[in-house]
Description:
With about 160 residues, the chain is of the alpha+beta class. It has helices at about 1-15, 65-75, 135-140, 145-155, and strands at about 20-30, 40-45, 50, 55, 75-80, 80, 90-95, 100-110, 115, 130. Helix 3 (about 135-140) packs antiparallel against helix 4.
Amino acid sequence: xxxVLRMVWDxxxxxxxxxxxxxxxxxxxxxxxxxxxxxxxxxxxxxGRWIIPKGWPIRGLKSSETALQEAWEEAxxxxxQASAAPVGRYTYNKRKPSGLQVPVETLVYSVAVKxxxxxxxxxxxxxxxxxxASDAANMVNEPELQSIFRGRANQSx
Length: 157
């Protein structure tokens, strides 16, 4: 019996539990500067919690371009530019429809917002809100994303 359990652990359970994290990219959308800086949060479609626009990599696009695409689809950000390199990263567990949670590492790109559209692909599914970095840190759930916002709050103080 021990041998069978060991085989199940080695062949199935250990690889399943030790898989590398999935990768997403996100847009840290902001406007203003210094103490007047504000950050754009949107609600998630499933739970309505506050998040930043994010999604899976898109074949043929750089990560920064994918971040811009997600900012457009989820928040209506257009005519804006993303940083070439990530300004941070955070991890979270994405809940699949089956209930299984998958660890996800999210690369965060800074997006200086120049224009917001009132109509965008997910406008009817999400609420968006401009907030200070300090307020954003208190509104999002992910501890590492909270740290990114707290770092921004300290820079503008």
